Amino acid sequence: QLQASGGGLVQAGDxxxxxxxxxxxxxSDYVIGWFRQAPGKERKFVAAIGWRGVTKLYTDTGKVKGxxxxxxxxxxxxxxxxxxxxKAEDTAIYSCAAxxxxxxxxxxxxxxxQGTQVTVSS
Length: 122
Hints:
Largest sheet: 7 strands, mixed
Distance between the termini: 34 Å
Shape: globular
Mean pLDDT: 95
Structural class: mainly beta
Low-confidence stretches: none
Number of helices: 0
Radius of gyration: 13 Å
Helix content: under 10%
C-alpha cells in the first residue's frame, strides 16, 4: 500500500527527492513518516508530515532539518522527501510509513512500504 522510490547513488553535496506513493488507503487520513536504516544500525525517524501538510516534524540528529524537506500531494497520494546537501552519513535505506496520528516511533506506524536505497559517496 506504500511504495518508496527515487533513491539512488549520488555524490556528497548532491540532492535527491525520494517519493512515497500510497494506494488502497484513504491517504489524506494518515500522517506519513520517513525512516532510514543505515547498514548495521537501527531504523531511525527522519521526518513526518500531517494530514494537510501543515505540520512537519524532523529528527534532530544528522542536521536533517534545513537540508531535508518533507511535503505531500494528497491529490496524487504521494509524499516527497527533498534531500539537499547530502552527506555520506545519509546513506541508508529510506522507508515510508503511515500512522493515524503524529507520532515519531516506528512501532506507532501502522503501514509500511518497501524502502529505497540512498547511497552518498564522499
